[in-house]
Amino acid sequence: MLKEFKNKTILVTGGTGTIGSKLVEALLKEGPKQIRVFSRDESKQYELLEHLQHHPKLRFLIGDIRDAERLELALQGVDIVFHAAALKHVPFCEYNPFEAVKTNIIGPQNVIKMALKNKVSKVIAISTDKVVNPIGIMGISKLMMERLFVNANYYKGNSKTIFSCVRFGNVLWARGSVLKLWEQQVKNDRSLTITDKEMTRFFMSQDDAIDLTFTAARLMKGGEIFVFKMHSIKILDLAKIFLQKYFPNKKVNLKVVGKRAGEKLHEELIGTNEGESEIFENKKMFIIRPVVSIYSLNRKKLSPYSGFQKVTRPDLYSSKDYLSPEGVKKILNRDL
Questions:
Q1: Is domain 9-171+204-230+272-314 annotated with CATH 3.40.50.360?
Q2: Global pTM value
Q3: What is the pLDDT of residues 175-193, one digit of tens each?
């Protein structure tokens, strides 16, 4: 049991999404005082309440991070916030850019302001590898979210609230993920679609995502971005092995439909847009910590992270360095 969560009141924005609900379920095992699930969809809240058997430490709050007044009430008496609410589908952000700004930029600003107002201890925001050298609205808006949370540590004055981020890749079997899409396509006797034969992506399991987030909550000093060292997979290889594993006796056509709006061929985990940063690593993750202080006289020397080594900036950590098909099989067998 992690002492960080014991007897604490914790709020999870987007708490009915794939990651949000997994966080809630994992946090219940850590002895919290109360967990508040903050989200917009009452049906998903009821489903999660039923799944978790009406646990007495759960509270379900209908609300939107765009609504600062609602957040202010929801955050009263909260010790820790996990911010998982976002618009995450790349094409929908491209076609609805103003909505992406409201949810992925204005929403996080509201979370920061109301966390400060309510004297929350820690705030951990969930980000994505699409923020690295972004080309689309989703990646750009989430990059702005990251910068807001990192730089909130300059904005907070004498407040003891600290803000950090975790940076995910694609989470296997998450709602809206490619595996979920393919499963529905095959069950409905449709062609399995891939966007580009050469496209690669970083993947992580749901357990990896929770482990990274909990590690960040334990180690954070304020301003860091925690990045899991993920496996990159060629989407074509993933599709073929997916069919072999889950539908071995079914004939399915593979259809190439082309890249969607706002998509890149390859993703990166650490890129040229990190700015002036210190980077630490162990076998499982990187920690990116900014070293530039707006007011140099107030720069504090932070203690090192136990079990991590400071490294020179690594080479571009790109998904184009993908696993072999045999490596993909191991990932599917282990994580799914």
A1: no
A2: 0.92
A3: 878 999 999 999 998 899 9
